[in-house]
Each structure stands twice: as C-alpha cells, then as structure tokens.
Specification:
Layout (H helix, E strand, L loop, with lengths): L6 E3 L7 E2 L11 E4 L1 H12 L4 H8 L3 H21 L2 E4 L4 E9 L4 E6 L16 E4 L20
Parallel strand pairs: 1-5, 3-4
Antiparallel strand pairs: 2-4, 5-6, 5-7
Helix pairs in contact: 1-2, 1-3, 2-3
C-alpha cells in the first residue's frame, strides 16, 4: 500500500454545515464531506479545472483526484436526493499560501503559519504579492481592487 499524501488546499470552507430547510438537524442523518473532498469540488465543479490541473494544485495524482471528486459528488448527491445534512470536516490536508513576483513572473507557495517570505526565491526581489486561484497574478487584495486587464 502506498503512503498517504496530504492534500493541499487553498483555504478551509467558511460554512461547514448544510441541511435541508424546515427539518431540525437532530432529525437528519449526517454525511461527512472531508475538507479535501470540498476542495476537489471547488476546483473541478466551481472553478472548472480539468482533473489533471486540479490534482496538481492539490499536490496529488490525477487518479487520486478522480477518486476524491467521485466520492465527494456521491456524498453531495446523497444529501440532495435523500434530504440529509452535510458536515464538512476532517481529511489529511495541508494549507498553502500562493505568491507571485512581478519582477520575474515567478510563483511559489508557502505553508500557513510560517510568516511572510522576505523575498522571491527565484530572483530575490522583495516586491511580490500573495495570490489565490480566483485572482492569480491580479492582486485584487482585500478591498477588491481590479487590475488593468479587468480581471
């Protein structure tokens, strides 16, 4: 058996519990969707990435990604069709922060909790910014600024 590899995710979900309207949670069967399954759904179904690209973002094989997304879709369908609650928790995950250097167009990531990098590891420039999948290389930031190309 191959060793288990942590899955890289961009961020944990803000809302971690969903249920059908009008039915108290105590009466519902609960299905657990792991955080890595949630990330797979976000990358493939919301962001529209192909499995190979999404697997690369999560630092796993395409086959592993395929297994994760299939499991996630089954669980979500079970909740929708059979009126079950969905709880998002658990999984072997690793969170990374993504950075972009405008000097060399380099991108890299750093684990959460390690502080801000001092310089770009590729060119040594100190003028770089943090990015994510939704605004890569655009620097939208917290205030929703737009870059020159309108992205």
């Amino acid at each position: 058996m191959r060793p288990y590899k942590c899955r890289r995710i961009e961020k944990e979900p803000e809302i971690k519990f969903f249920k059908p309207n009008g039915i108290p949670a105590k009466f519902l069967e609960k299905v657990v969707l792991t955080v890595d399954e949630f990330e797979a759904v976000r990358l493939a179904d919301l962001n529209g990435l192909y499995q190979e690209e999404a697997a690369e973002k999560m630092s796993i094989s395409r086959q592993t990604f395929g297994n994760i997304i299939a499991s996630a879709r089954r669980k979500i369908a079970d909740c929708l069709v059979n009126a079950k609650a969905l709880k998002i928790e658990g999984g072997e995950i690793e969170m990374k922060r993504n950075f972009f250097c405008s000097n060399c167009n380099g991108t890299w990531n750093e684990p959460f909790g390690t502080g801000r990098p001092e310089k770009c590891p590729k060119c040594g420039d100190k003028n770089f910014r943090r990015v994510n999948d939704r605004n890569e290389k655009c620097g939208h930031g917290r205030k929703g600024r737009r870059c020159a190309n309108g992205n």
